[in-house]
Amino acid sequence: FILRNDLRKAIEREELSIVYQPRVDIETGKVRNAEALLRWNHPNWGPVSPAEFIPLAEESGDIMAFGDWILKSVCLQNKAWQQAGYAPIQISVNFSAQQFLQKDLVGSIQQILKETELGPEWLEIEITESTILGNEEIITRTLNQLRKWGIRISIDDFGTGYSSLSYLMRFPVHTIKIDRSFISDISKDASHSQTLISSIISLAHGLHMSVVAEGVETEEQLDFLKKYQCDEAQGYLYSPPVPAAEFEAFLVPAL
Ligand code: G
Ligand code: G
Ligand code: MN
Ligand code: NA
Predict the structure, then answer these.
(1) pLDDT digits over 142-176, tens only?
(2) 15, 163, 174, 187: least CB-packed within 10 angstroms?
């Protein structure tokens, strides 16, 4: 496949880039976190969605090289923003199952943090429910090690799998990101989603976890989330994912 060969060379040909989407504290309006998302600009075909090429990279094993490149780029960028005098933010990076299950994951993350001189508290790792399934023991061990080192962890696309909420909430994570499919259903009166969202929030808070709503697009959705004390919101209402230079508009000077 042409695409697969192209993918392998995408890093060295500098066709990959990273965009950042702000996560906003609903109470204060402050941006404390950004999600990093990978972009591939193919020389002939233009932008290729990560939903298409990440699965390819997983099949071919290229995801490991991609993962290292993303993590290092994000940590360098975050360190550069801190050194430029901006108030520090956390940056969240998506990890696929293969990446998360790699041998010595903790060691390789620590190596990158050391090289880039970024404090571990400014890195968040997003894993999905499907990554957890079938790998509970090793995942729990890895999550505990990452936590011990001060790295933050969130469960992405929360609610889309088949696990029960109480089961999922046993995992030692800091944050739960409610999938955008539930957020887009909020406006439908008395919807199942409304009940689910408010239940997730109160369960999570009871376990000292914070909650992020993904895909927030309207004021109406934001009002609902505010009413139920959701902690943070991310979505087109604030901004789509944007290149680093554009993201600086969301940063404020450190005191
Ligand atoms: O950016 P976009 O909204 O098109 O992302 C589509 C999907 O690709 C999302 O599910 C997202 O989690 C995934 N994705 C985006 N960037 C990365 C990345 O750097 N690593 C991994 N593993 N997945 C990513
Ligand atoms: O699966 P994950 O949460 O990692 O992927 C994030 C995806 O959601 C990215 O593809 C991003 O572009 C997309 N996204 C971010 N905000 C919104 C939004 O408000 N609405 C919609 N439809 N998609 C969004
Ligand atoms: Mn994500
Ligand atoms: Na998601």
Answers:
(1) 999 999 999 999 999 999 887 888 888 889 999 99
(2) 187
Task: Give the Cα separation of 152 and 206 in Å (integer).
Answer: 19
Distance 181 CA to ligand 4 centre (A): 9
Determine the distance separating the centroid of ligand 4 and the alpha carbon of 84, expressed in angstroms: 30
Give residue 103's region: left, alpha or beta (phi > 0; psi -120 to 50).
beta
- Does ligand 1 come within 6 angstroms of the Cβ of 54? yes
State the closest ligand 2 atom to the C-alpha of 126, by its place in the atom list counted from 1: 4
- Would you say 226 and 201 are in contact if contact means Cβ atoms under 8 Å apart? no
116-142 per-position pLDDT tens digit: 999 999 999 999 988 998 899 999 999
Q: Is the CB of 184 within 6 Å of ligand 2? A: no
> Which ligand is in closest contact with the Cα of 35?
3
Residues 6+ apart with CB under 8 A from 9: none
35 C-alpha to center of ligand 3: Å? 7
The CATH topology of domain 2-164+239-250 is TIM Barrel (3.20.20)
Quote the CA–CA distance of 31 and 43 in Å, as a whole number: 34
CA–CA dist 213, 221 (Å, integer): 10
pTM, two decimals, is: 0.96
**Would you list the domain boundaries of the chain?**
2-164+239-250
